[in-house]
Design goal:
Blueprint lengths: L1 H20 L6 H16 L3 H15 L9 H8 L12 H10 L2 H96 L3 H31 L3 H11 L5 E6 L6 H21 L5 E7 L3 E8 L11 H12 L3 E6 L3 E8 L3
Parallel strand pairs: 1-2
Antiparallel strand pairs: 2-3, 3-5, 4-5
Protein name: histidine kinase
GO molecular function: ATP binding; phosphorelay sensor kinase activity; protein dimerization activity
Enzyme class: transferase
Amino acid sequence: MDKYIDKATLFILCAVFYAQYRLDLYIIVPIICVVILSAFMSYVDGDRLRGLAALVYFAACIPRPVFVFFLPVICYDLFYTKYQLGLVLILGPAAIAFRTLPPMTAVTIVLIVGLSYLMRRRTDALEKTQSGYIALRDSTKEFSLRLENKNKELMEKQDYEIRLATLNERNRIARDIHDSVGHTLSNAILQTGALLATCRDDALRERLGVLRDTLTSGMDSVRVSVHDLYDESVDLTAELGRLADGFDFCPITLDFDMDSNPDKKVKYTLLTVVKEALSNVIRHSDASEVSVTLREHPALYQLIVRDNGAPKAPGGDGIGLKNIAQRVESVGGHVNIGYDGGFTVFVSIPKTR
């Protein structure tokens, strides 16, 4: 845009100076010619075409010296090209100008040519500065986005590690309770039962019965608490990773994209479906590749287990497939099992509100 402003400024300056020198019927001819050639030089990208257009204009200055008045406009596009040496040709029209025009007019034209050189140099320097600024801004923005993504990945990894550590700690607590408190309560219940078997005092037997019932109730409460702790400590990502690591029938890819922690029933259902599907691949397929995809959507969880093999033998629904359907339906989900260039198990389970 700055180049066009410079050229418009030079054109107006040259036109005003030209109008003071000559006012007749053919005054418009040099103006039209310089507008056409200047527009052509601004439109084309090749330096060769620009140099050719400038050469044509320089040649026109020899028989028609009035064309010399608009030399600054033509020279503006010729500056800073590989044909800068072609500016030597301007000496010919300049000599004609000094010979046919008043000396002051010729000197003024030369000064305007020098002004066009300075304007072009200033505009080029400004464009380089702007280009450098834009490149720096883009690189800074790109770096900022990359840094933001890295920070996000680190935060997600940190949250996952904290959650995994919490689940492992819950699992350890559940094992400790089961091994220590559960073992102690079991011994107490057995000893109480032994006392009941040997005691002949009815009043004491009644009290021992109450004690046994209390210990049994405490044992049931501990068992339920331990199971709840263990169920909550199941990490779906880690369990699927273990299943994938233990599957050596063929290469397997795991695509896991979930942010929330599903209900324990949903966890066990998804794990059961993956286990049964991988077991069916081993027993009933000649696949060379298996993919397991688990994604979370706003309203549901989606599981897709797909292989690229053909069934070894045709048949109806087996027990394993019925088990998959029953487990999925028990949590309100839907399952679609089919074959299309490979065996596919598609499961969708709605989120509980």
